[in-house]
Amino acid sequence: MTSLLLLTASAGAGAAASTGSPAGAPAPTAATAGAAAADWGAPGPYATAVEVGAVTTLYYPRDIATSDRRHPVIVWGNGTFAFPVVYRDLLLHWASHGFVVAAANTPQSNLGVSMRAGIDLLSRRDADPASPFHGAVDLEHIGASGHSQGGAAAIVVGADPRIDTVLPIQPGPLADIDGVRVPALLLAGQKDSIVFPFLVKAFYDDADHIPAVYGELRGADHFTVVGDPGPFAAPTTAWFRAHLMGDLTARAQFLGAGCGICADSATWSDVRRNGLATG
């Protein structure tokens, strides 16, 4: 795919960061998820922390060692020549909503090897009584996401049977969505001149065997997700809450008869859903 040099954000990746209200809030459920708030672009209830490793950087709820629940997982792939610090704000945002994010420490993520390594790492940590992650990682609910080359990697990793949903953001072309057997949200930017929207639509068109949604964010270019994720924060969080946490209010934004994003022309320049996503 076309090489992409992303500007590295200046935020310190190794330091713990706080967001939202104090940690320890109860887990949302399908029955109550929409009752508290439907602003998925706002910080979630968990304070957050970061752990930088050799292969994987983890973004997670800070109180995970004392958590009374298991936290779903999101594995992340970076764009070409980029590292997780570039996407730190988005990954911390997901962590504030109760996810454990395993971001691959590689600027060449297309094969998905390092993303799968993040699942393996969390599997070991969850099983280790000496780890703060012991018994707190929900390995039955795992999503894959990434940007640009990492978006293509999310599709590649989506063929792994451990993955429950994929959310490629402006994915490069080096992937085959035919191998994915889980729901997909494919995001494009209306003004993206690196991964043009028609390239993302091609993945959507080929995804007729799975529930698939195509969303094109109005005014977004290829770098809108870098740093402050802006319009990408809310829909990505809602999608993962729907598929990994059973949030029915979030699910209604994309699937079924209602489709909240379908009526939001201020945010979306194009929304498409295949037949498996509309029933």
UniProtKB/TrEMBL annotation:
Protein's name in the database: Acetylxylan esterase
Keywords per UniProt: Signal
Positions of the PET hydrolase/cutinase-like domain: 25-255
Keyword Transmembrane carried by entry: no
Domain of life: Bacteria
Cleaved signal peptide residues: 1-15
SUPFAM superfamilies: alpha/beta-Hydrolases
Keyword Signal included in the entry's annotation: yes
